[in-house]
Amino acid sequence: MHIIPWWIYIVVIALLAWKATQRLSTTITLPISILFIGIFGLWDLAIGTLAVVIAAVFISLLIGIPLGILMAETKGVEPVMRPILDAMQTMPSFVYLIPAMMFFGLGKVPAVLATLIYSLPPVIRLTNLGLRQVPKPAQEAAIAYGATKWQLLKEVRVPLAMPTIMAGVNQTTMMALSMVVVASMIGARGLGQEVLLSINRIDVGRGFEAGISIVIMAITIDRITQGFAKKWDPIKR
Asked: Which is nearest to 40 in space by CA: 157, 214, 220?
């Protein structure tokens, strides 16, 4: 990701902001705010953080969405998964560093694994919730027209549940980003490492710049994912 020039990231963010929100103010504000990360001299660290977050979120979605569908479609899965998800969400984030470090040592791989475990529950829960909240009249109408169980899931339930699923994607991404400071303790580097160093050295200015950079990334990701979630809402189309 370091090979890509910085201005390409700015252009991509502007395009995504416009596509998601269709608002000129957001399309201008988000790329300008990202420029402050470069002004602070933290661009390379931010890209490293972004790489960890993207990897963790991508794997979380590959695992979480199918598990959420399985919970909604198969009886007996939810009672088993619910206490596991409760434990994953109530466990202190520092605890996830222990098994990740035991199996993979220090570096970005255990950081991605710990972030994955920490950020996985929201997308599973909200996928399950979204599918269960699909109106029954819509499902009955599809069945009356001869839809199979697979067609009902693919053409009716998942599209109608997409706003809730996208909210799960948003929450998973936010939780992954909130884990970067903790993951820096096992060698994840990035902006989290900068925050950790500033705490150890009591360097308020350095910590403030790194913290603001994390906030800017969080706001940017949040606005874009929320915009796409609203686009999937059938009521607002």
From this structure: 214
